[in-house]
Amino acid sequence: MAVQQNKKSPSKRGMHRSHNALVVPGIDDAMEKGKILHRAFEVLSGYPERATLLSDAVGIDLDEKQATAICTAVAAFDGWLANNIYPQAIHSEVPLLALDANGSVVSGFADMIVETADGLWVVDHKSDQVTTPEKMNERFATYCPQLRCYMDILKMARPDKPVKGFIINWASFGKVSVVGMPEQQIHSTV
Predict the structure, then answer these.
(1) Rounded to the nearest 5°, which phi and psi values hold at 97?
(2) Which of 89, 100, 110, 160 is the most exposed place for a label (fewest CB within 10 A)?
(3) DSSP state of 58
(4) What is the pLDDT of residue 30?
(5) Phi and psi based region of residue 46 (left: phi greater than 0; alpha: psi -120 to 50; beta: remaining)
(6) Strand runs (DSSP E) across 62-159, as ranges?
């Protein structure tokens, strides 16, 4: 995968813009929107030529405006990854299963695992409909334990590569939160 190397610039608190806020006209139900977006990122990320398959993949007939909005958001996030994380491989909907320190079974699906030359990143796509930065911070705090757990499982499953951190793709807002990256490597994108 060819990757464009851009000059990096620091950002505050690990929040970065990856694309414009995603609005899918005519899809107002949050659960439905979340399912559509997850499936779209699974099918299209790294494969923009699959855009014609999007309606079949998500199970509803999307009009041109809806499909364009979704494809644009996926392409922008892919661009953010390429310009900031430098992926060598992207794996979608990765099943994770392990025993925790207490012997309890922990399982889940990582929306995306991004493999780079120097490590692995856990990516979680979120379609939350929060209206303020404070609410986004609350949701962020809610999701952190899950993603740290996924990082721990990935460390056990892939001892050959370090787990660098996790990324929350706030698809509805066109922003990403990055945790684990050294401060001097955090990037802003437009």
Answers:
(1) -150, 130
(2) 160
(3) H
(4) 77
(5) left
(6) 89-99, 105-116, 119-126
Q: What is the longest distance spanned by two Cα atoms in the chain? A: 50
In which element (H, E) is residue 15 found? strand 15-17
Q: Tell me, what's the pLDDT at 34? A: 86
Determine whether 159 is exposed, middle or buried from the number of CB atoms within 10 Å of its CB (0-12, 13-18, 19+). Answer: exposed
CA distance 97 to 152: 11
pLDDT digits (tens, 9 = 90+) for 23-33: 676 777 778 88
SS3 26: coil
Neighbours of 117 (CB within 10 A): 8
Tokens 């207490």: give the residue.
102
Residue 24 phi, psi dihedral angles, 5° rounding: -105, 100
C-alpha 136, offset from chain centre? 15
Q: How many CA atoms lie within 13 A of 131 on its CB side?
A: 0
How is residue 127 written in tokens?
């379609």
pTM for the model:
0.81
pLDDT in tens, 119-134: 999 999 998 877 777 8
**Amino acid letter, 63:** D
Residue 165 DSSP symbol: E
Count the neighbouring beta carbons within 10 Å of the beta carbon of residue 94: 17
Are 125 and 41 contacting, i.e. CB atoms less than 8 angstroms apart? yes
